[in-house]
């Protein structure tokens, strides 16, 4: 295992960034991983940071409307991402405890969307996110990567897909992991999360003006990655 935790001192403003934003279950995570692997670049899963703040809040019994305590929690989040070479996955440690599985649950995603609407939390996580920008480059996945965190990104992508298609994808993802969910429940949760992410005042989910929008409802993963790869080659030369 080796740690993959950036430090402020190694932050490089010169490293190029590609941002991949979009609503829940639009395929950002998978696409980001595959594209970053092809490019040989680093990854920022910004949603994981909001999920971690939500988990830490629950752990310390901090209510989701206690802005000051949430700000302090987000600013001092004790987290480590460790690559398990044998399993080929990243293990997430929160205050030394393995929370990898808990982090991916729908409950945690919903909690994350609540703490993510608190401006103080977003502000506290800003520098931590920017510290992931290291040579040779970064593919950043989230909601406000192109609008707020990396406005100077060399390529900005906004992925969408119909709510039904996103619920279907999420259902298959969670079913494979053995986590009990229903399509109806997922559709409702997706609609609720979309509304909260789009309507919040702090960094709402909107495409950056210079983002390229791609509807992936009818596209397979490889097709999406191939299209983005072509766009990267055109932009990066
Ligand atoms: O995988 P999924 O898209 O469902 O969730 P995620 O990317 O892990 O993000 C969880 C929640 O964190 C989202 O519903 C957003 O409310 C919030 N988030 C955010 O506000 N800004 C980001 N850059 C990333 C996530």
Low-confidence region ranges:
none
**Order of H and E elements:** EEHEHHEEEHHHEHEHHEH
How many structurally independent domains?
Answer: 1
Instruction: Kindly estimate the percentage of residues that lie in beta strands according to DSSP.
Output: 15-25%
Task: Give the name of the CATH architecture.
Answer: 3-Layer(aba) Sandwich
Number of helices: 10
CATH class: Alpha Beta
Oligomeric state as shown: single chain
Helix content: 40-55%
What does this 3D model show about the protein?
- This protein is an alpha/beta fold.
- The chain has one domain: Rossmann fold, CATH 3.40.50.
- Helices cover 48% and strands 17% of the residues.
- The strands form two sheets. It has a five-stranded parallel sheet. Strands 1-4-5-6 form a four-stranded antiparallel sheet.
- α1 crosses α10, α3 runs parallel beside α6 and α8 crosses α9.
- The longest helix has 17 residues.
- The protein starts with a strand and ends with a helix.
- It binds cytidine-5'-diphosphate (CDP).
- The site of cytidine-5'-diphosphate (CDP) has 16 residues, from α2, α5 and α9.
């Amino acid at each position: 295992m080796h740690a993959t935790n950036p430090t402020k001192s190694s932050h490089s403003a010169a490293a190029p960034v590609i941002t991949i934003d979009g609503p829940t279950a639009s395929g950002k995570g998978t696409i980001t991983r595959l594209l970053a692997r092809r490019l040989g670049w680093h990854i920022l899963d910004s949603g994981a940071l909001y999920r971690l703040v939500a988990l830490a809040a629950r752990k310390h019994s901090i209510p989701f409307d206690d802005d000051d305590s949430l700000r302090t929690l987000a600013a001092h989040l004790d987290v480590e991402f460790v690559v398990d070479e044998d399993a080929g996955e990243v293990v997430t440690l929160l205050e030394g405890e393995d929370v990898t599985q808990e982090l991916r649950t729908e409950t945690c995603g919903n909690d994350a969307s609540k703490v993510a609407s608190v401006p103080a939390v977003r502000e506290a996580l800003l520098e931590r996110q920017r510290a992931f920008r290291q040579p040779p480059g970064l593919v950043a996945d989230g909601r406000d990567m192109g609008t707020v965190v990396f406005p100077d990104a060399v390529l900005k992508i906004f992925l969408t897909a119909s709510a039904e298609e996103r619920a279907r994808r999420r259902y298959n993802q969670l079913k494979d992991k053995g986590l009990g969910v229903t399509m109806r429940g997922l559709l409702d949760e997706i609609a609720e999360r979309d509304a909260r992410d789009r309507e919040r005042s702090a960094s709402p989910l909107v495409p950056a003006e210079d983002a390229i929008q791609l509807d992936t409802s009818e596209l397979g993963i490889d097709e999406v990655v191939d299209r983005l790869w072509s766009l990267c080659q055109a932009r990066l030369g």
